[in-house]
Design goal:
With about 280 residues, the protein is of the alpha/beta class. It contains 13 helices and 6 strands.
């Protein structure tokens, strides 16, 4: 079991799922360690994502836990067996780990659903828009940190623009579409870019007009990432202390409910496209 200094969110999630299986089977970590001829410390490292675990060992553990959910076992084994390095690894040591974790999670998602209230979604931002947002951070970022953040955000677009694009539905509040993070030229180019992404089928966009009745979700910003199985879905929410990855079923259920409520308050995709087009005329 090779140790990791900085496990990714995906590796942590795999460990957490293995812990859930062990606890559901009623085993203590030391009992499983004895079964594997290992130690409790090593088991803790595996379940914390700090130590790697092979697909073969996952299947052995699943059998020991009497887990008969073959789809789940296959999905966890696939997570363990995926050792490929993604483009985001180029930014390791350059950007905060959470930036890499988000890109990796998007890459592996079966579908993406997002709600944004105050800013254009990262997956739809232009480089000028992203630069304006990052330039507003405090303390102010030096160019050596600002440029890679913008580059990383632009490269995230590949998940919805590649040869096998991930289905992406985003719900955007009118406020986010109207606020000028830079100037009129940047805002106009940003709106036109969104319309282009809609036209090319890269994104399905729904808008919540500022005068829409029945919308009380000012704090509803979130991203929901579909997993290979519903129980492996992941939610993301920004908090005052950073981005929070959510995998507890009860909390995922709350996010799904929240998304449905927000979606109900939004315009249909065609009406949303027309709404954004009108905004470009107003600019």
């Amino acid at each position: 079991m090779a140790a990791r200094n900085h496990p990714t969110a995906r590796q942590v999630r795999l460990g957490a799922e293995l812990r859930k299986l062990r606890e559901a089977a009623g085993f203590k970590a030391r009992e499983v360690a004895a079964f594997l001829n290992s130690t409790s410390a090593q088991m803790s490292q595996v379940e914390a994502g700090i130590a790697a675990v092979s697909a073969e060992r996952i299947r052995r553990l699943a059998a020991h836990y009497a887990c008969t959910d073959e789809a789940l076992i296959d999905a966890l084994a696939a997570m363990a067996g995926d050792r490929t390095r993604g483009w985001w690894d180029e930014y390791r040591g350059v950007l905060p780990q959470v930036n890499l974790d988000v890109a990796e999670a998007e890459h592996h998602a079966a579908y993406l659903q997002e709600v944004v209230i105050t800013h254009i979604p990262g997956l739809l931002q232009t480089a000028d828009y992203a630069r304006a947002v990052f330039s507003y951070m405090r303390p102010e970022l030096p160019e050596s940190e600002l440029t890679p953040r913008v580059e990383h955000r632009m490269r995230r677009h590949s998940v919805i623009e590649g040869n096998a694009p991930t289905p992406y539905l985003t719900i955007v509040h009118e406020f986010a579409l109207r606020v000028r993070v830079a100037d009129r030229r940047t805002s106009l180019a940003q709106l036109r870019w969104i319309l282009d992404q809609i036209e090319q089928g890269h994104a399905s966009v729904r808008v919540i007009p500022v005068d829409q009745d029945g919308f009380g979700g000012a704090d509803a910003s979130m991203m929901y990432m579909g997993g290979p199985l519903a129980q492996l879905d992941t939610g993301l929410r920004d908090t005052p202390t950073g981005t929070l990855f959510i995998d507890a079923e009860a909390q995922l259920g709350q996010l799904r409910t929240l998304f449905r409520k927000v979606e109900k308050a939004s315009l249909e995709p065609t009406a949303s496209r027309d709404f954004i087009h009108r905004l470009t005329k107003e600019l």
